[in-house]
Amino acid sequence: MKKLKVLALALICAAFSPAKADEGMWLLQLMQEQNLADRMKAQGLKMDVANIYNPSQITLKDAVGIFGRGCTGEIISPDGLILTNHHCGYDAIQQHSSVEHDYLTDGFWAKNRSEELPTPGLTFKFVERIVDITDKVNNDIKKGKVTEAESFGKKYLNELAADELKKSDLKKAPGISTLALPFYEGNKFYLFYIKTYSDIRMVAAPPSSIGKFGGETDNWMWPRHTCDFSMFRVYADKNGNPAEYSKDNVPLKVKKHLTISLKGLQEGDYAMIMGFPGSTSRYLTESEVKLRMESTNVPRITVREARQNVLRAEMAASDKVRIQYASKFAGSSNYWKNSIGMNKAIVENKVLETKAAQEAKFAEFAKAQNNEEYAKVVGQIDEYVANIAPLRKEATYFSETFMSGIEFGATYRTFANLKTALEKNKKKEIEKAVAALKEEFAEVHNKDYDHEVDRKVAKVLIPLYAEKVSAEALPAFYETIKTQFNGDYNAYIDALYNNSIFANEKNLNAFLENPTVEAIDKDLAVAYSTSKSKMYQSLMDKISAASENINLLHKTYVRGLCEMYAPTPKAPDANFTIRLTYGNVKSYDPKDGIHYKYYTTLKGVMEKEDPNNPEFVVPAKLKELYATKNFGRYALPNGEMPACFLTTNDITGGNSGSPVMNGNGELIGCAFDGNWESLSGDINFDNNLQRCIAVDIRYVLFIVEKLGGCKNLIDEMTIVE
């Protein structure tokens, strides 16, 4: 085992004020050590930083949580009312929608608590406690309990998290779980105590013509006029503890909720965002940036564009399909366009040149330090990239085609278990395997799946995959297409979707009347799924072998960069843990002769209206409110209705729904997007171009009260004029 290098990050990466105030998704638990308070106050922070985060008291941190699987939400009333983005709540809105109750099109407004809709599967998570466990991990490495390479692994970290919970005073607290994660590429480790609430109810959602106004066209673009919000509520048992849905549950009396400001904002005003940014890669080398461009982004763009073309046509032709695939399409489209914009921005913002310059500086630093490990590490990473690039490209094409693209297919293990049970002729095992098969069939053929739409997707993606990868990356069913169907993809797919056991309920029931090993062995769906699984495992094994030492190389490189840049601190990459970012309200100039001001108004919605384009339809009631200037107390001093605004905050995916707060910690907006010109920001932050796009809280409240008619929700909030 390599000798462990213990980095005192508290001294090197965390003890000095930053040179660029706006860059950095900062760890709350390191704010004091990093002396962020002085810089934040210089930017305009008026509140005590101890009221943002303090492990011994209730702070702003306690009003922010994880909404669903990948967004942020904030508590905006004493009774657990959650504000997040419309696109974050989209799955839930779609789940509750039908042709008869089309909440996607019409919106949803609960006028009282009894109308709030339970949403199975939706959760809201609070961070209860954060503990530094770096010394614990390093001691385990020194004692030989785990190798340095294994210390990054889920197995070790999950076991460590479970052990720490057993020793904690929170071990018997309802809803508590623990999560241990590496930071600074394994130079630091933290343990998070999470409290999860699982009774979350839908409260309010504007029509998609408001909550998704601009659609794909405006996504990642400025100027923006999208009122991207939805509202939910946390319910708990009578003691305030997490509980599964029950009619006896009550709205959670929260520890902390955000005060809402209607005082408005001006250019230069302080803005801070707290949330859960998903993933950044600021420490990549030049070769790794190229790897991202060519082996991740290009395959993702190619496959998703092909699939979306099919879905777009099918959704336009049927309201039923439109509702079924609304959330799937939105999720796919978002990072399809992001990948396009990222590759474009990497070139235009000269990210590769910036990385090359950093590596040249690092080489000089390593030489001056006479540090052989630092001198070699970039070359070792480049060697890794050369080996992994073709594998990563094929793995991306595979996952985008067969895991994210085509939905149909059985899990081969389900049929394997049934086959084994039939061979043993064990009645109970057969019954158990049959039950599992029925359950899986129901999971595939769910209410949001259309077999004919998926067939059309398969007819596009299966040939596309064969065109883009090497013969070695083709699952065995491609040989079946060649030998048994004369290379006719459509004929094979029709046979798969028509005749296999998994194709429809009639076929399944016919098989279950007389299940045999022979029927399983010759079934196309079983062969299709089995060959997919084997190929995926083969690709993962090859990638794992090629990546054996990459975590340790990154650990060395990041440690060296922190030393090189000292005394300027560096924030760790985002990993969907709670972070703070601060900056200012600010306009920007993307190109020569173009100036974008820092806010938009409802006037822009009316200017963009296009009744023939579903992305730019404006509801009649909103037009009426605009025409009569019925904006209430939410208007600007000049009488206009604010819509969205820009800040310099450093955010990424996962920050969607995050609260944007002023210098007093009061809510002024809800973050929902970044700008097109800086989509390389996850890799390299550009202080001049990077902007966060937020919906103005005044626009949100205007829609809730004037269009949704939910004065009941306004009345439960704490609002300062």
TrEMBL record:
Q: Which UniProt keywords apply?
A: Aminopeptidase, Coiled coil, Hydrolase, Protease, Serine protease, Signal
- Fetch the Pfam families from UniProt: Peptidase_S46
Name residues in a coiled coil: 420-447
Highest taxon above the source species:
Bacteria
Q: Which residues form the signal peptide?
A: 1-21
Q: What is its EC number?
A: 3.4.14.-
Q: Does the keyword Repeat apply?
A: no
The enzyme's first-digit EC class, named in words, is: hydrolase
Q: What does this protein do?
A: Catalyzes the removal of dipeptides from the N-terminus of oligopeptides.
What family, per the record?
Belongs to the peptidase S46 family.
Q: What is this protein called?
A: Dipeptidyl-peptidase
